[in-house]
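Hello,

Our lab assistant flagged a job as stuck in the queue for most of the afternoon. It eventually completed. Since we weren't sure the result was trustworthy after the delay, we are filing this so someone can double-check. Below is the sequence as submitted and the structure that was eventually returned. Let us know if re-running is recommended.
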Amino acid sequence: MSGVRIAGLAWLLAGATPVFAQAPLPPTLTPSKTPLTTAIAPIPGAKTGGIIDPARNFLAPGVMPDAAFAAFQRGYYVTALREAMKRIDAEPNDAPAMTLVGELYREGLGVRRDPEEAVRWYRLAADRGDPQGAFALAISYLRGWGVKEDVKAALPLLELAAAAGHPGATYNLGMLAIQSEPSDPAKAAALFRRAADLGNNEAAYALGLQYLQGRGVTRDGPRAAQWLKRAADDNLAAAQIDYAIMLFNGDGVPADEAAAARYFRKAAATNNPVAANRLARLLATGRGVPKNMIEAMTWHILARAAGVQDEWLDGQLNSLSPRDRATVEEAVRRHIGGA
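-- returned structure --
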């Protein structure tokens, strides 16, 4: 996807300084350069991870998902394919069933993985006006899944899906507005707001970052905090980190180091190394949480293993007694074993 692929929302974080300085008691925190999200993501909504959202694929308005989508939701993929094909045999223009078949081929669920065959089914669904089929085909063009990368071909498909209220399509249109030449952050902000209102947590996070840095909107700390909190409370680790930073600094919200520590901990629990490093700092200094060097060094080692370096925490680790170091090593082993 030449000219379009970017590292998440790094466009908003360019030029930012690392979240913690090396001082053990940092007075403030600032956003990290670390890429935190996916730029072009197959996310139809805040709580669905695949291309399609089975709950939105009805035979008719108000009708609950039939056997094909019920089987898909339960992981019975061979049954899902069989039932979807029954639907198509009975109604050759059953676009939602075509999208489901395409997803099964794209992921290799119950059938041999075949991206080209997936694209064929997505195109059949999109040609019949199915928003999720159009979105799936657009993502295939953007990612080069079973078809040559082609942003221009993806754009009208995203617009078709977005016009039908598809949150993932609306979010991706916002990302394309950011990446276009010239960039249009104001348009992106409007699209992110629309997608966020439809329940997309990535869009809420992106809009929060725009308010935080004044990109396409007037800088507004309280509004930034509002949108980042929404995404953070919807379990988006990237938003949990940046909202925790705002809480620690008192930027747009009253300073609350204990709340900041809780959000860092939530993100660290998802194996996010940036959050693990920040939590380690707080635990090592007793900021927002009781000081606990064993837990601090456990998170530090996990973050360091994932590439987040911190010389000050290295020094703290080296100062531990042999007994405490052995305790830390055992805690790391338990964490890895339970991950």
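-- support follow-up --
The delay was a queue issue, not a problem with the job. The result is valid. Confidence is low (pLDDT under 50) at residues 1-50, 54-64. The two ends are 33 Å apart (CA to CA).
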